[in-house]
Specification:
Blueprint lengths: L5 E4 L6 H8 L6 E4 L9 H9 L5 E3 L3 H6 L6 H9 L2 H8 L4 E4 L2 E4 L16 H7 L7 E4 L6 E5 L2 E5 L12 E7 L3 E5 L3 H11 L4 H8 L4 H5 L1
Parallel strand pairs: 1-2, 2-3, 5-6, 6-8
Antiparallel strand pairs: 1-9, 4-5, 7-8, 9-10
Helix pairs in contact: 1-2, 7-8
Length: 222
């Protein structure tokens, strides 16, 4: 495993309040933001918080980062575009799809695709397909918003969970990857943030609903 300490923060989804709570607990040399960072109610504030870490912050692209800032004709995408300036949009669009750091591969959904869905319930043949050609023993992903640490197709696969759009329990989910893997959560006032989310006028109020009533593991896997 890597010699430096690494925190993996995935799927913040523009929830600046959740990110602020998590960052207050993060004590790592490097913080990897694993995609889907800005698509949500507070895109500018969330990006500003992430960038405040300076050289400690590393970024990879998520599907909603990419879509919201390119050709996605959706009210929520326009919301994000209008709240990020030209420099911020260019900064996000320059993020790589994957990052290899200290013998760990960080990707958003799978190493080959930022929208592909593979779950703990997927057959091993499916895992072997999506992990084909990956040299790193440990792969860290997100996208599913479901935290787990399992072995699949000869690799240790860690899903850090979602900082800003939780499943299972109303909290912020994240992980430390090195020197040891530790699945983490940070509690904050999700009900108050849900109310503030609705008050912004952001079109996707279902994200606020899920801050109060997260989807269960079974719902996610279905």
């Amino acid at each position: 495993m890597a010699d430096v300490s690494i925190a993996a923060l995935y799927d913040v989804h523009g929830n600046a309040h959740a990110l602020e709570a998590v960052l207050a607990e993060v004590d790592a040399d490097v913080v990897v933001f694993g995609g889907d960072l800005v698509w949500g109610a507070w895109p500018h504030e969330t990006l500003e918080l992430a960038r405040s870490l300076g050289d400690r912050a590393r970024f990879i692209m998520g599907n909603t980062d990419r879509l919201a800032l390119t050709d996605w004709e959706d009210a929520s995408a326009l919301w994000v575009q209008e709240r990020l300036n030209d420099e911020e949009r260019a900064f996000v669009l320059a993020w790589p799809a994957t990052l290899s750091l200290g013998g760990v591969l960080f990707c958003h959904a799978t190493p080959r695709n930022d929208t592909e869905v593979v779950t703990p319930a997927s057959p091993e043949s499916r895992w072997a397909e999506v992990l084909d050609g990956v040299d790193e023993e440990t792969v860290v992903c997100g996208h599913l918003h479901l935290q787990y640490d399992e072995r699949h197709a000869g690799h240790r696969v860690v899903n850090a969970g979602s900082v800003g759009n939780p499943t299972v329990r109303a909290t912020a989910w994240w992980a430390t990857i090195a020197p040891e893997v530790e699945l983490r959560t940070t509690d904050y006032d999700t009900r108050a943030v849900a109310a503030a989310w609705r008050a912004t006028g952001y079109p996707r109020t279902d994200f606020a609903d899920e801050l109060e009533r997260p989807r269960s593991r079974d719902e996610v896997l279905r």
